[in-house]
Amino acid sequence: MATDSEKDLQEAINLIHLYGTSYRASKASGIPETTLRNRNDNGRKKGLKPSVEPTETEVAQLRRQVRDLKTDLRNIEVEQVDAVTIKKTILKLTNLSPSPPDWLIAPPKKNTLPGVPTLFFSDWHFSEIVVPEQVGGADNAYNIKICKKRARTTVSSAVDLLFNHVVNPKYPGIVLALGGDMFSGDDLHEEITETNETPILMAVVQMLDVMIWCLDALLEKFNNIFLPCVVGNHGRRTRKPRNKYRVFTNFDWMLYRLLERHYDKDKRVTFYISDSSDALYRIYDHRFLLTHGDQFFGGDGVIGPLGPIIRGDYRKRARNNQIDMEYDTMIMGHWHQLIQMSKIIVNGSLKGYDEYAYQKNLPFEKPQQALFLTTEKGITISMPVFAEHSNEKSSKEWVGVRK
Predict the structure, then answer these.
(1) What is the domain extent for residue 366?
(2) Same structural domain for residues 23 and 157?
(3) pTM for the complete prediction?
(4) Are residues 37 and 119 in the same domain?
């Protein structure tokens, strides 16, 4: 029988030390677990010790952070787990009760200014994969690489629209509304779990980098950013939707908090992360309600989502009027169809047309996000921001008359 060299014994000791168990070390190295254990034992008997120290990868750090969050939450009495406790004790955030920034509510000195722009991010479904062949050959594919490219295109296109296609483009800042479903999630549907490109924690790490790039790019053009945030339904950690602790058991919330902590010392960036399913804020005197939209059900192939959305808006307005929380415009995601009206704005998606929409015979829609301007008089300009540039140059005349 061949005797293992001292190099083999040292390698086994290092691998088990790095990965914690012989099982994980075997998975990572491809060396049989039994071989690793025997080499580790023989090496230890010879007095060999680990010659390397384990280093935490970003995913390992995030797993540890989630584990610490869970431990902290369990140690706090249920009746005491409120937003202040979580932000102050667990996430160590200093700005516990951010007030709306002055630039968002103070009237402009000149009436000729175009207003405050709002760019609406929602329904990115990061890590989900869409294959064109599975949507009848429709012109849409999706994965992490495409999502990152579309995110950059969305930001650059929004900047182009606001600064090159608007008269007197002077803005006090920009509102970046985050409407949830930034991830596909792991627990909502079994088929999504099986086909996601990465596990959810890896997706959070990568998504955080994407969002930091987006905010940094916007900060190059705008002096201030205000971010109202609500969670969606795909990022939840539970199989069924829940009402209690809906926000705190959602990976959208985790992304927002990590993003808030990244910009905690930057006075130009203000977050409003709602502890409920809705977020109320105002631009000048125009009041907005931001929600995800998964509370609304129904619709058909004729009226699409308009029926449940309008009914849901009616109920929300009635409820909010009773508690002195009226609003002028509701903005929401979830439906993956861009609808821009004065009292309701529904966002498109970055994912675009997928297998679900194809099987439901829903209309095709390009990946796009909402952009609109608000002045003292209300919403004045609404426009879509397409997430992909067209590579085809049209040879058709720009206008034609049927003969």
Answers:
(1) 98-386
(2) no
(3) 0.73
(4) no
